[in-house]
Amino acid sequence: MDPTLANTKFNLALCYAVTDRWAEADPLYRRAIALHATESQKGGLQDIRNALKTHPNSQALRKAEALLSDS
Length: 71
Description:
Blueprint: H1 6-18, H2 22-34, H3 38-54, H4 59-70
Helix pairs in contact: 1-2, 1-3, 1-4, 2-4, 3-4
């Protein structure tokens, strides 16, 4: 995986978050945020919110939403 591709990191992190694997999702979200790709981050946040519609009890998705909202 190209380390500069924020979208890829956000998508992979979302896969982990949807399956409640926060330990794997968290560092990917943080690396993606560190790339300062604003549009990618907005898209990542929207993807999280969409996933919460079908997985409303996911603690990992809630953590991801808070992390991206605060960044």
